Amino acid sequence: MEILLQQILNGLVQGSVYALVALGYTMVYGILGLINFAHGEVLMVGAMVALSVMLKLIAVGLAAPLVLLFGLLVAVLVCMALGYSIERIAYRPLRNAPRLAPLITAIGVSIVLQNLAMIFWGREYRAFPALLPSGSHTIAGAVINDTQLIIIFVSLLVMAGLMALVHRTRLGRAMRAVAENPAAAQLMGVDTNRVISVTFMLGSALAAVAGLMVSANYGIVHYYMGFILGLKAFTAAVLGGIGNLRGAMLGGVLLGLIESLGAGYIGGLTGGFLGSNYQDVFAFFVLIAVLVFRPSGLLGERVAERA
Predict the structure, then answer these.
(1) Where are the transmembrane segments (predicted)?
(2) Could you tell me the domains of the chain?
(3) What's the pLDDT at 72?
């Protein structure tokens, strides 16, 4: 029972990160019908920028909370600028092109960002400073630390803020209008180019937050860290129903739980033949199963039906 509860807690932490990244995928797809495969690399850039800023601030003796705050703020701003640049330079010229063209471009942007990060920050794994509280708490035999609790709390706070923005603000109404019918929205006076750019920027900001969370949880940063994480978050978005915000959140949490429970029990189920290092397999088994049995995802997806 303790193992089950421990894996559930681990899954909730991981699922919170997947949900944040999946929201970036699903917002872009909901408005443009485009899978932004460079989104994982935006997360990586956010983590790298945050680390660089934090190391500079630590060197001058700034307090840990301020180091985290400024590191996150700079990472969010850089990722928003990067998201805007990617949309403006790589995707906007291909908006009316066949769907295969922006898909290939997205993969190309991902590879370019990986290599630029490798050139700028190097190939080696870099240690992320332990600035968050390190205390731990025991719940019915399972252990969760303060960093993991902060990750869950911040994820819930950010997701609630995003839902409020989408459903209760003028910008949110414009985003929903463009997602429903871009031509009609433009006829009603909505600046579709601005809405699409802001959507990319919001998704990139969420990726920056998620990048800081992943780095703080595992204590390392690497130029390749966003690739697999991005694919898993894409799987989470498909699982929940890509284009659906609630679906992205649900899919992220479910995928985190499936992966964590699978990693915890795969050794016993296979007699030790497979270990927890095979946990990445579960995400792609889920992706295959969803595409075969329910391509629209758990909560459906109206945009795909319209398209």
Answers:
(1) 12-35, 42-60, 66-86, 98-122, 142-166, 195-214, 220-242, 254-275, 281-300
(2) 2-127+136-306 (1.10.3470)
(3) 94
